[in-house]
What does this fold into?
Amino acid sequence: MNYYAMKDVIIGNEFIELDTIDSTNDYAKKLIRESAVREGTVIMADFQTKGKGQKGGYWESEKGKNLTLSIVLYPSFLEVQKEFYLSMSVSIGIAEFLSQLSLNSKIKWPNDIYINNRKAGGILIENAVKNNIIASSVIGIGININQTEFKSDATNPTSVSLELEKTVAIKDSLSILIKYLDKWINLLYDERYTKIRARYRKYLFLRNKKAFFTDKKEKFRGRIIDVEESGLLLVKTDKKEVRKYNFKEVRFPF
Ligand code: BTN
It folds into this structure.
């Protein structure tokens, strides 16, 4: 008999639906601090008054038009050196969700979701680390579904409805999204690291495409060749030098 020691998590075993909240990520972190939330719980809001983006930015989302949610995980098998696998798994899940809606998407490193060179979604993961392992993780996901006008200075926003030229039922899109997130988070819990990296590479925006990059020294031409397990971006210059970047150390198109 085959014996597989597999860890299981069910995404969406519990749902907390909120009308208005400051940020679903902050709400999730509060519940974790109070030991009041089970692994896999999805916390969603119709509207966030202080939706948080990366780099301390604001996440714009019109009331009731989009998916703004956070998922609570306790991935205690995951060492902090492997935390980027959370980003990879979740962004792949979103890309597969969009593909189910007949949209081709790409993952702009590290974890922005792009459709036709425009940003349709973003991820903000907030981890608590204890003894070198991820004790808890709040996976914050914002995906623009039916919003068609964007007021903030967010770069190049788009939405599912702008791309499909029709509106989409939020509840239907939520259940498809949860299905694919469940699939890829469970592959992570099964420690299918090679499969996850390979699929992330497949979706990686501008991979092997010539483009201009700007780092703190200069603007140069090159191409993205890979992303390391740690999350570092590898760019090969036209002069065949490989440069490694941490988050926010390099800019490139769109
Ligand atoms: C980004 O800047 O790309 C990340 C955006 C993440 C937004 C989501 S919306 C639900 C969750 N709650 C937050 O306050 N932020 C994340």
Remarks:
- The pocket of biotin is lined by residues 23-25, 48, 51-54, 57, 59, 68-70, 112, 122-124, 140-142 (CB under 6 Å).
